[in-house]
Design goal:
Blueprint: H1 2-27, H2 34-38, H3 47-57, H4 63-74, H5 89-124, H6 129-143, H7 146-160, H8 176-201, H9 205-212, H10 217-254, H11 260-269, H12 273-301
Helix pairs in contact: 1-12, 5-6, 5-8, 5-10, 6-8, 7-8, 7-10, 8-10, 9-10, 10-11, 10-12, 11-12
Length: 307
C-alpha cells in the first residue's frame, strides 16, 4: 500500500507539469495586458511606462522562456508576485487556501452524507412516493445552478428568517449556506448513483444468502449491500471534486468568502497571470490528492483489490 501511494505521488508530478504548461499557455491567450492592468488608475500612463513594467515582469521574453523561468522559480516555492498587489503568490495562496479547503470539506461531507441517505431511502422504497420525492429532490439539485441556489438560500435563511449569516464570516454556522450551495449538485449525483447501484446489489445472490441466514435488514444493508454499492459510486465522488472546485469560484464570490476561488476570480478580472497560474496549480494538486484518496478507499471497500 505504501509503495502504491509513493508511486501515485510520483506520477502526480508529470500531471502537475502538464497542467502548468496548459495553464501557462492559455493564460497568454487571454485578452489584456498585465502591464496595463498593473498601471490602471495611474495618471498619464505612457508607452515607456508600459514597456518598463513588461520588462520587469519578463513579458517581453518568448513564451517558452517565460515558462522555463516560471518553472525554475516554482520548484523553489516561488510562484512569482501578484501584478496587482505585488505580494508573493504563495503567501496569498497560503492565506486563502484554508477557507477554500474548509468549505470544500464541509460541502463534500454534507453532499456525501445527504446523497447516501437519499439513495438508500429511495432504493429501499422503490417505486413509492418516497422514491419519487427523493429523486425529484435529486433532479432539482442537479438542475439548480450553484450561484442561483446560493442567492435563494441567502434570501430565505439570512434575509427573511435571519437564522444564518449571509456571508462566509463568523462561527461554524457560516459554512452551512455555502456548503449547501456548493454541495447540492454533488449530493444529487451521489444519491442517484447510490440508488442505482443499491438496486442492483439488493437482488444479488450473496445478499439473498445473507438474508436466508437470518441476518437483520440493517446488518445486510450495512455489511453487504451498501459497502458493495459504494464501490462504483466512489469513482464518481472522486471525479466530482474537480466540479466542486470549479463551483467554489462562484460560491465564494456569492458569499464573499476570501478563498482561492475568489482569488482566482480577481486574478482573471485583473489579468493577473501569476495569481491565475498559482490558483490553477492549487486546484490541480487538490484534485490529484482527491483521486489518490479515492483509489486508497477502494482497498478498504473491496477486499479483492490488492495494490
Amino acid at each position: 500500500m505504501y509503495q502504491y501511494i509513493a508511486r501515485r505521488l510520483l506520477l502526480a508530478i508529470p500531471v502537475l507539469v502538464g497542467v502548468s504548461i496548459a495553464a501557462f499557455s492559455m493564460m497568454h491567450l487571454i485578452p489584456g495586458d498585465p502591464a496595463l492592468a498593473m498601471l490602471r488608475g495611474q495618471p498619464q500612463v505612457t508607452d515607456a511606462d508600459v514597456q518598463r513594467v513588461r520588462e520587469q515582469l519578463g513579458l517581453n521574453d518568448p513564451v517558452p522562456i517565460q515558462y522555463l523561468k516560471y518553472v525554475s522559480r516554482a520548484v523553489q516555492g516561488d510562484f512569482g508576485r501578484s501584478v496587482q498587489t505585488r505580494r508573493p503568490v504563495l503567501s496569498d495562496l497560503a492565506a486563502q487556501a484554508p477557507s477554500t479547503i474548509e468549505l470544500a470539506l464541509a460541502a463534500i461531507a454534507l453532499a456525501v452524507t445527504l446523497g447516501i441517505v437519499l439513495g438508500v431511502v429511495s432504493a429501499l422504497n422503490q417505486n413509492t412516493w418516497i422514491d419519487t420525492f427523493a429523486m425529484l429532490g435529486a433532479l432539482f439539485g442537479v438542475s439548480m445552478p450553484s450561484f442561483w441556489f446560493g442567492l435563494i438560500l441567502i434570501f430565505i435563511f439570512a434575509l427573511k428568517l435571519g437564522w444564518l449569516p449571509a456571508t462566509g464570516q463568523g462561527g461554524p454556522e457560516r459554512l452551512v449556506l455555502p456548503a449547501l450551495a456548493l454541495g447540492m449538485d454533488f449530493s444529487a449525483v451521489t444519491a442517484r448513483l447510490v440508488r442505482a447501484n443499491l438496486l442492483e446489489v439488493l437482488v444479488a445472490d450473496y445478499v439473498r444468502t445473507a438474508r436466508a441466514k437470518g441476518l437483520s435488514q440493517r446488518l445486510v444493508m450495512i455489511r453487504h449491500a451498501l459497502r458493495n454499492a459504494m464501490i462504483p459510486s466512489i469513482t464518481i465522488i472522486g471525479l466530482q471534486v474537480g466540479t466542486l472546485l470549479g463551483g467554489a469560484v462562484v460560491v465564494e464570490t456569492v458569499f464573499n468568502i476570501p478563498g482561492v476561488g475568489h482569488l482566482a476570480y480577481e486574478g482573471i478580472h485583473n489579468a493577473d497571470l501569476p495569481i491565475i497560474e498559482g490558483t490553477v496549480e492549487f486546484g490541480a494538486f487538490f484534485i490529484v490528492i482527491a483521486n489518490l484518496v479515492v483509489d486508497i478507499a477502494y482497498a478498504f471497500l473491496d477486499p479483492r483489490v490488492r495494490y
